[in-house]
Known about the structure:
Blueprint: H1 4-17, E1 105-106, H2 111-114, H3 131-138, E2 143-147, E3 150-153, H4 155-167, H5 173-184, H6 207-218, E4 229-231, H7 234-247, E5 255-259, E6 268-279, E7 282-288, E8 297-302, E9 307-312, E10 321-325, E11 332-336, E12 356-357, E13 373-380, E14 384-389, E15 394-398, E16 401-404, E17 410-412, E18 428-432, E19 437-442, E20 450-458, E21 461-470, E22 475-480, E23 486-490, E24 498-504, E25 509-515, E26 524-530, E27 535-539, E28 547-557, E29 560-571, E30 576-579, E31 591-596, E32 605-609, H8 613-617
Antiparallel strand pairs: 1-6, 2-3, 4-11, 5-6, 5-11, 6-7, 7-8, 8-9, 9-10, 12-13, 13-18, 13-20, 14-15, 14-19, 15-16, 17-18, 19-22, 20-21, 21-24, 22-23, 23-26, 24-25, 25-28, 26-27, 27-30, 28-29, 30-31, 31-32
Helix pairs in contact: 5-6
Amino acid sequence: MVNTKFFARLNILVVLMLLLAACGGAVATDTPASQPTEAADTSVDPTEDVADVEPTEEIVDEPTEEVVDEPTEEIDEPTQAPLVGSTDIGASGEGTVDTTGQYISDFGFRPDYNGFSFPNYGGEGEINLTAAEVRRMFGDQVCSYISGDECTLTPAGQQWMESVNNSMNGGHCEGMAVLSNLFYTQRIDPAQFGADSVPALDIVGNEPLQREIAYWFTTQATQPARQGIVQQTPSGIVNTLLNAFAAGPEGSETYALGFYKRDMTGGHAVTPYAVEDRGDGIYWIMIYDNNYPGAARAIQVDTNTDTWSYSGSTNPAEPADDYEGDAESYTLELAAIEPRLSEQACPFCDEGTGGATFSGDVQIGYSAQSEVKYNEVWLEGNADLLITDADGNQIGFKDGQFVNTIPGARSNANKFGVNVWDSTAEPVYYIPTDVDFSIDIDGSRLTEPATSTVTFIGPGYVLEVSDIILEPGQVDIMDIAPDGSLLSYRTSMGETPLMLLGVETDASDYLFAVQGYELQPDEAVNLMLDTKEGWVSLDAIDNADTGTYFLAVLKYDDKGEQIFGADGITLEPDDIVYVDYLKWPGNGEPMQLDVDYGSDGSVDETLQIDDVTDEFSE
Length: 618
């Protein structure tokens, strides 16, 4: 009998893999922060008065466009650095600060004329990345095959896209910050998305705009876009913006601006457009905050102490969340727009053409000349991850605190900008491809059962375990080979996980899916892949009971996609089943399975398992 829950999920997977045309936050630099990159033309001594640094062009005394009306209540000019906007709430045009409109350097952008009229959004049924955007970003190498002009992504590409899209459920602030800048500098025409001006654009039902915002959101995590991140002291960032704004929209570089809490959680991305001198060493970086449509907002920098502060809430029912930092926290950063405009390096493509790299990137711990490839680990859900290498070094959350002792490993905390900037979101982890490691999926901080998915993506391969239901205090374990050839999942309570293993090869691309047996506490399921011999093995060695599994094999090549599905595959605890996928003739034909009874290294029986694809299709 067919496991309808499994095949329903797999059916969704197949449909998703065929999507061709389908809109998040930004990615923070590594945690913890290290020394900033050098910027000889812009970094300043924190003791230097920023006002003494002349921009490269004449300072604009009057704004070039209409400014926000003066507030009804007058406030005294600050002499210290209170949190800007600390009493502001709302996400519908409220929250304008008491700006004078007299700026010492002015880009010309205005939130009410050049920003979106709708607030930051996420998880509302919007369309995010599709295969078309992934192909646009990385080129044809991301496609298993192309029919007409329609791209079907490789298995790793599909899972990478889904992981990025899932992260956008927390908000699209980075995409909105970058795209509003690109509209203002006339690199992109808003008329392509249905209106002659940015405020006139409607996000509801506007799939092209949703997908465009998602595209620019995604560039926060790619190279060479990430090489454009500028980390400086707060005074240094003010100085960089003075020169950038003075150069105007046609200048060599423009920026989005990101900020985080000191532990690099709860990030947000905004669009900076002017600097106001508030006197006594206090400066306001004027920003378009996409959580406050039409409002003039400000990040306050005190150059006397080289500190910064900002406060706001995206929900009138919730109190404002306070953000601040200093010259050593590096929680305020600029993200250059220009490096995002070229084709990006594919982080999930086969060896020699892809793999996440961070050559010359900030906070990597390697010289600019070095280049290291990375595997990516993504979590969807409310658990914590703790990754441990063969020497006992770790990265992730241990007893609720972030640690990183794995040489060369790094993490990127997601910036979302919705629900008070979602400070509990798990970062994306980057582990060098030569490091063996295991992953603890830790529910110690849960207060109720939660469902999680862990995805491991490398150059040309993907491994994933989904439908993980963790009870409070439960810790499950994934063992992974860094080349994608092994996936082992062990539970401490009892699970029925869905396990995926995908690989890109020269001839064809394959995705293998296994589910069905309800694991008991301390039991495990193991998948191994040998692309040279052309088999995938399934075993449950060390388990106490006989298990029955469901298997699907998806094959992609120049002829299109073919699907094999079978249920009722029985496995005794000490047996190993080898799926000979290279010997499979194609749709409707049986799959050869070799069985090693007792796992002594020899094949004892060869079986022909019927394809139930027709039943699955129905």
